[in-house]
């Protein structure tokens, strides 16, 4: 972890907000002001580890303007249970980078069966909270997505045990998953955990989960618990389908109305609709926004032209390789940049400094960290960088003057013109 007396970089989200606390159904910063954090989730560590590096995180901070990074450490299927030292090194590396950049970071025990691995999980969070508990940046997500486990007799006792372990070292925010792929938040609100600074996970995928899930979230908040959307997608619950702009708009309006923090799924080049990156996207960030050929997968490519795809030249595409942003990636990036340009993280207008510049979420550190980059090349999976170092993109593509609602409204109008996506049943496997 970062050594010595550490201070968040000036102007960074952590420098602005400091320690985050739960007060009723809201997150409050160290100044007593409601706070909303926005950002991205990485992909399962054992399968998406090539993007778990300092250059990607720096690019997300500088270009996407994230204030939050979620680190889903895979537990089963070749993850922590089989390779504990390798997975712990991987998550430690990216958490250290997030701390130095001054953004908030979620250490996520990415597991559907955590109740069966309670001893491993408790030992892991004991070590992580002892190591990182002194940093206000670090949150602990102790159970990604329970499935059919019961809240009262399985999920809650497991989470309570981890809460008590973490509280030996820190009172930082702790987030607990809820039943049925982290959707039954109203059930958890009726029998909440004991303790302070606790939030409950809500996950949604726009093409599958609609108003009925928002009703559950409203009920939970009315019962006095805080909701944290640590994972959401623009597409179907299985990670694929198409980008559902209309329902994504409704969800973004809901999260803004209730000041709920969120992390989008995911920084990955897997060939599915919810991935932010096209296949073979650079492992060093600097992804071109536009693409040179039409995606056969997406029916909504034209919706996102106004998000700035024309700013990435063919020359930029060649330098960055064949993989740029997907439709989902372009939409989410534009939303994050719009939010950062026009709001503080807690939702009030961003003040100008003496030069008239609105400080963004990446101004704290522009230079490359050679030490981190050397460490990234020593990845446990021996991932190789496939593209050359690239220059930064030309300009901000979303004007700070354009209200987010207008951007979404334009997208929805176009979506209606070509037909709404089919609603698919099913639950998230993530």
Could you characterize the architecture of this molecule?
By secondary structure, this protein is of the alpha/beta class. The strands form two sheets. The protein has an eight-stranded parallel β-barrel with strand order 3-4-5-6-7-8-9-10, surrounded by six helices. Helix 10 links the parallel strand 9 (226-233) and strand 10 (262-267). It is built from 14 helices and ten strands.
Strand order of the biggest β-sheet = 3-4-5-6-7-8-9-10
Radius of gyration: 20 Å
On the 0-100 scale, what is the average pLDDT? Answer: 80
Give the number of helices. Answer: 14
For the report, how would you describe the main beta sheet?
Answer: 8 strands, parallel, barrel
How much of the sequence is in beta strands? 5-15%
Summary keywords:
eight-stranded parallel beta barrel; two-stranded antiparallel sheet; alpha/beta; disordered C terminus; 430 residues; 10 strands
């Amino acid at each position: 972890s970062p050594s010595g007396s550490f201070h968040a970089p000036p102007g960074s989200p952590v420098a602005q907000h400091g320690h985050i606390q739960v007060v009723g159904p809201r997150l409050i910063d160290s100044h007593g002001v409601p706070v909303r954090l926005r950002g991205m989730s990485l992909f399962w560590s054992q399968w998406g580890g090539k993007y778990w590096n300092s250059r990607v995180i720096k690019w997300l901070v500088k270009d996407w303007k994230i204030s939050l990074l979620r680190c889903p450490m895979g537990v089963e299927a070749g993850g922590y249970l089989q390779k504990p030292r390798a997975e712990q090194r991987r998550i430690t590396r990216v958490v250290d980078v997030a701390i130095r950049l001054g953004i908030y970071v979620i250490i996520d025990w990415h597991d559907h069966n955590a109740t069966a691995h309670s001893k491993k999980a408790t030992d892991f969070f004991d070590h992580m909270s002892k190591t990182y508990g002194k940093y206000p940046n670090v949150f602990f997500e102790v159970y990604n997505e329970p499935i059919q486990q019961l809240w009262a007799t399985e999920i809650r006792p497991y989470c309570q045990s981890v809460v008590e372990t973490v509280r030996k070292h820190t009172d930082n925010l702790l987030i607990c998953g809820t039943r049925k792929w982290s959707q039954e938040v109203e059930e958890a609100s009726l029998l909440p955990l004991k303790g302070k600074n606790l939030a409950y996970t809500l996950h949604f995928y726009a093409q599958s989960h609609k108003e009925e899930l928002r009703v559950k979230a409203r009920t939970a908040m009315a019962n006095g618990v805080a909701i944290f959307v640590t994972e959401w997608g623009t597409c179907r619950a299985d990670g694929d389908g198409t980008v559902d702009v209309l329902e994504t708009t409704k969800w973004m309006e809901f999260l803004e109305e209730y000041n709920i923090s969120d992390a989008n799924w995911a920084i990955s080049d897997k060939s599915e609709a919810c991935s932010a990156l096209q296949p073979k996207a650079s492992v060093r960030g600097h992804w071109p926004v536009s693409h040179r050929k039409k995606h056969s997968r997406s029916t909504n490519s034209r919706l996102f032209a106004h998000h700035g795809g024309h700013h990435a030249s063919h020359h930029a595409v060649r330098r960055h390789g064949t993989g740029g942003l997907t439709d989902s990636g372009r939409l989410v990036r534009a939303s994050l940049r719009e939010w950062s340009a026009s709001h503080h993280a807690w939702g009030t207008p961003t003040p100008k400094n003496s030069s008239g510049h609105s400080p963004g979420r990446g101004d704290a550190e522009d230079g490359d960290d050679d030490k981190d980059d050397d460490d990234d090349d020593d990845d446990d999976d021996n991932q190789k960088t496939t593209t050359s170092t690239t220059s930064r993109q030309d300009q901000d593509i979303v004007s700070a003057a354009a209200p987010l609602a207008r951007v979404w409204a334009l997208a929805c109008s176009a979506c209606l013109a070509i037909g709404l996506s089919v609603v698919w049943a099913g639950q998230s496997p993530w």
